[in-house]
Amino acid sequence: EVGTPEDRLRVQRALARALPYGREERDAHREAWELAQGVASDAELAVIANTLADRAFQFMEDDEARRWVAAARDLVAKAGSAGIAAAVDRTALEIEHPPGWHAAQERELARGLDRALERDEGVLAAYRRYLDSRCRDASADERHALLLRARAYADQHTPGVPRAIVFRFGPPWMPWLEGDWDSSVAFWEELQRRFAGDDLAEIFPDTGPIAAAIHLEREGPDVAGAQLTALAERQARTETWQGRLAAASHLASLQLALGRPEDVRAGLGAIIAQRTPQAFELPTFMLAARVMLPAALLLEDREALRPWSAAAPLLANEGALFDAVGAHASAVAAALEGDRTEAVERYRTAAETYRERGWEHLAAELAWQRARCGDESDLDRAREFYSSRGANWQLRWLEEGQWR
Known about the structure:
The chain is mostly helical.
């Protein structure tokens, strides 16, 4: 062994931070925990314990995650660090995901952003987390004002930092579901110019699959299917729950385009069955809902719908996007019960909620589902949406009535 115990711990922690997200990275943090005993401060130990709590949760080891949170709380109580205590509380909220946890987390993220700005430390990550969360209820104007503030900070304080590029275009899921597809594609093209290889998937995991999903809607599965499959499979390689969930959601876009909703159920549906949608962070919640709910409709599968129907009342008052997905789930439930009038009304509510908040893509995707229930009044608006974005394959799919 070379160096002091403190040196070995410092090297090990740097290694853990440098490794790509996944099992090897988690093992590196475990090794850091062992090396930290009798060497690190209570605050440093609390940070490592909190990281290990998050990783246990990501690998579906909830009991271990709770044990690590308890250890982190004991340590931070001794250390007296408000910032670390807030980070532990955020991790605990996600692990326990009680009713109202998204709103509670957002309040803490707002405070965390203020602290980061005061200290000029960790600001980019704080802006990104807060922006992802605030999308749950923000208007388009509010989202883009927040994005502009983050971009101005990045341009002034962190020029050239790779992660700062997200504020030029927005988190990749946001412009895609809003309908600003050109920004999503431009983001991916810029990343390909500036970075290479696995760095793209590790730093910006959703960007490539989303660009491929846009290509799918424009050109169809024969042209875009192989690329989307490869990018989604790369995202799933972390083996984490979030990585598998996001990758399966992206792959489900292709499976629906191919007319194989049963594959959505077998892949994404199996992952959703492992943990309630109430536990999902907002981006993955939206990515999963937009494909799993129409798959349940096409399959007439109440079991595939059940996790979403059960989560809906627990997500009440959590924001407009959660309300819209709840209305969508209710629409599918009504359709499966044969109540077309109620289904149409619930689809209308979901679409109006999306449009009021500027999520035009999400609203357009409901049109064919509503039409299956006998109301084709929103199809023209959906056609206009897809036409304006060059989604020629999706337009043909609508015109050929493959949704019937």
